[in-house]
Amino acid sequence: MTQEEKELLLKDLCARLPYCLKLRYIEDLVVKKESHVITLNNIYLEHILNGDADIKPYLRPLSSMTEEEKIYATQFEINNLGPIGFNWNLIVSNSYELIDWLNKHYFDYRGLIEKGLAIEAPEGMYNNVII
To answer: What's the count of helices (H) and strands (E) in the chain, helices before strands?
Structure first.
């Protein structure tokens, strides 16, 4: 993993700490012990920094968004444009809310799956997660 990829992954994971994100975790990179599904916490972030474990988050591709989720997410965009047009203050204030919502629902909006830094979450993996 390049330094740039590591930084991208760490930025993404840090934002997801409050949301019980599931990870594939392989502890010993030499022996390649079997993987475990674990929940993200700050200890696993250190393993990524040190490069002593293979850790990949389970994320949902944006294409897996349900119709209800699409409607909800679209409201953030609609709220950014009022009758007077472009409103920078609304864009900034709504952007963090949209990013928080995407994180809470485990969406891969950074393209980590395509970059090989994340794994597509199996359907139903996050159904019983309470945040």
So the answer is: 4, 7
Predicted confidence (pLDDT) per residue in 90-117, tens digit: 666 677 888 999 999 999 999 999 999 9
d(CA 127, CA 102): 15
* Dihedral angle sign, alpha carbons of residues 33, 51, 112, 59: positive
In this prediction the pTM is 0.83
Bridge partners (DSSP) of residue 86 are: 81
Compute CA 75 distance to the chain's CA centroid, rounded to the nearest angstrom. Answer: 20
Residue spans per domain, the chain: 3-120
Task: Report the sign of the C-alpha dihedral through residues 37, 117, 41, 30, in that order.
Answer: positive
Q: What is the DSSP letter of 27?
A: -
